[in-house]
Design brief:
- Keywords: Cell inner membrane, Cell membrane, Membrane, Protein transport, Translocation, Transmembrane, Transmembrane helix, Transport.
- Forms a complex with SecD. Part of the essential Sec protein translocation apparatus which comprises SecA, SecYEG and auxiliary proteins SecDF. Other proteins may also be involved.
- It is found in: Cell membrane.
- It comes from Candidatus Zambryskibacteria bacterium CG10_big_fil_rev_8_21_14_0_10_42_12.
- The protein is α+β, with helices and mostly antiparallel strands.
- It has two domains: 211 residues, Up-down Bundle (Multidrug efflux transporter AcrB transmembrane fold), CATH 1.20.1640; 75 residues, Alpha-Beta Plaits, CATH 3.30.70.3400.
- The chain contains eleven helices and four strands, in the order H-H-H-E-H-E-E-H-E-H-H-H-H-H-H.
């Protein structure tokens, strides 16, 4: 199986992608939405020509509004983020935007989150993510507890965790770039997408690991070592992995092009995560098992 024969190349590619993602996140950071930091977000549809975002920002700042940022959305909309305001103040904001744009505007979205609620939500997200990873690791160790040769069950868990870190690092890196270049924010839907990706990736990885366990239980073929057995197991599950991922990716692509902007960012995170998860389950997790097996994997 090519994924095992050229495992060092694929592991290096995965490591480089993760490293680049971490660097991008460290340098640019993720742009948090009001879900986490509090504030108000407003989306307007402009009936006439759309002005430059900076002109809307300047008009609002000149009228006393704080922490204002404006960006285009789609063909006719504008999204404005600012310090928390009341529904009454939104009517004033709408009038300012209409005056700066020189045309009528229609409110399509208005969400407000207090800073305390945003901080509490962020803590819950961090706790949920950590608990999910720990539970996954324990589950894999328990599921493969009877597999001790040539790789102990703990190594299956380690390989799974490395794959999961890869799968959430790639979407984070892409969103950090998009946040820096296009103002794309990460919200609770982004976190939901990452948790969904974790679930998909662990399922895909365990399918391969389960086939490895089954083949170990049935015994190796003549002149077959653990490395070759892993390659055979991957080959037996490859069509299933690709077909499942391809079907899901096609569905998500359709959703991406027909959904509104709020849902589109969620779908984008899922798309990137599913592609990363498919790569990791085939080209990272199983090759890592062979690496962990050391000399035993070749004997």
């Amino acid at each position: 199986m090519f994924a095992i024969t050229h495992k060092k190349i694929y592991l290096t590619i995965g490591a480089i992608l993760m490293l680049l993602s971490w660097i991008v996140v460290f340098v640019y950071g993720l742009k948090p939405s009001i879900d986490f930091v509090g504030g108000s977000i407003l989306e307007y549809r402009l009936e006439g020509a759309r002005p430059m975002p900076v002109s809307i920002t300047e008009a609002l700042v000149n009228n006393g509004y704080e922490s204002v940022s404006t960006r285009n959305a789609g063909e006719t909309n504008m999204v404005i983020r600012m310090k928390e305001i009341t529904p009454e103040a939104e009517e004033e904001v709408r009038g300012i935007v209409a005056g700066a744009a020189g045309s009528a505007v229609v409110l399509e979205r208005f969400n407000t989150v207090g800073p305390v609620a945003g901080a509490a939500l962020l803590r819950k997200v961090i706790i949920a993510t950590v608990v999910s990873v720990v539970v996954i690791m324990l589950f894999v160790m328990l599921a493969f507890r009877k597999v001790s040769e040539p790789v102990p069950s703990s190594r299956y868990a380690y390989a799974t965790i490395v794959a999961l870190i890869h799968d959430i690092s790639i979407p984070a890196g892409v969103f950090a770039i998009l946040g820096y270049t296009m103002g794309l924010e990460v919200d609770i839907l982004f976190v939901t997408a990452l948790l969904a990706v974790l679930g998909y990736s662990i399922n895909d990885t365990i399918v391969v690991f389960d086939r490895i366990r089954e083949n170990l239980k049935n015994g190796m073929k003549r002149d077959e070592n653990f490395e070759k057995l892993v390659g055979r197991s991957l080959k037996e599950t490859l069509a299933r992995s690709f077909n499942t991922s391809f079907t899901l990716i096609i569905t998500l692509l359709v959703l991406f092009f027909v959904s509104n902007e709020a849902v589109r960012s969620f779908v984008l995170a899922l798309l990137i995560g599913i592609v990363a998860g498919t790569y990791s389950s085939i080209f990272l997790a199983s090759p890592l098992l062979v690496i962990f097996g050391g000399k035993k994997a070749k004997s």
